């Protein structure tokens, strides 16, 4: 069976296809009977699905995070497109490869070339003038290169696709370099903060068909995890100045900005204000740009 990409779907069409289950919620109709509300994904986008009949039987056939094979029909409600699902099963290579199941078709990926992004990242690192900051980044990225190139920057908001962390890091470092020149701040500190403030996500996000948060992310938080990872590597660099360590630690802990946004501390230096600002701006632009596509 030929699976139609979500961004090519139109209303009132029967379909058979493969998608990734991102959300699965049991809800009630007006008469009190149950239905299942799904959020489905492939590499082209997202769509809501509804299971109105045989709810309890079909609910047992798949879980959140599973690739699924489904049969249904598309319909419009308001301005949104949905799939009315008549049958659904967990999809596996063994069972569905002969029907055209390709797992990579379910996973959103950066539109930018990964090799070019990595090359650009190395160019940005070379602009860092303080050798201990450059050495710190080089050691961390050398140990985490594969993950750093693959991981998303977030689960569901900005850069939430394969290679998203690398793509955002390059974007942030480009902006940081320009702002550092304009405001005459410590460019080495700001660029290092832009590069490493999300490094904890390599430890706090589990990735497979879909990404989710592990227990460390839920209980500790990304900023603190990132600070801890960076500090482990700083301890290996005996000549790393204590003042620069403290300044970098503050950038990492304050990049989320406000306490109500789960930031451990709020920015108290110009470099910290700049990192928070460009991180927030860049995340918003990426989110809005993808939603307009």
Structure in words:
The chain is 44% helix and 20% strand. Strands 1-2-3-5-4 form a 5-stranded mixed barrel. It has a two-stranded antiparallel ribbon with strand order 6-7. The chain is α+β, with helices and mostly antiparallel strands. It has 2 domains: 6-106, OB fold (Dihydrolipoamide Acetyltransferase, E2P), CATH 2.40.50.140; 114-292, no CATH class. It is built from 11 helices and 7 strands. Residues 169-277 form the HD domain. Keywords: Hydrolase. GO terms for molecular function: hydrolase activity. It comes from marine metagenome.
The tally of strands reads 7
User: What is the number of helices?
Assistant: 11
Estimate percent helicity. 40-55%
Largest sheet: 5 strands, mixed, barrel
What global shape is seen?
elongated
Structural class designation: alpha+beta
Rounded mean pLDDT is 89
The separation of the N and C termini measures 27 Å
The percent range for strand residues is 15-25%
Strand order of the largest sheet: 1-2-3-5-4
Number of domains: 2
N-to-C order of helices and strands:
EEEHEEHHHHHHEEHHHH
Low-confidence stretches: none
C-alpha Rg, in Å? 22 Å
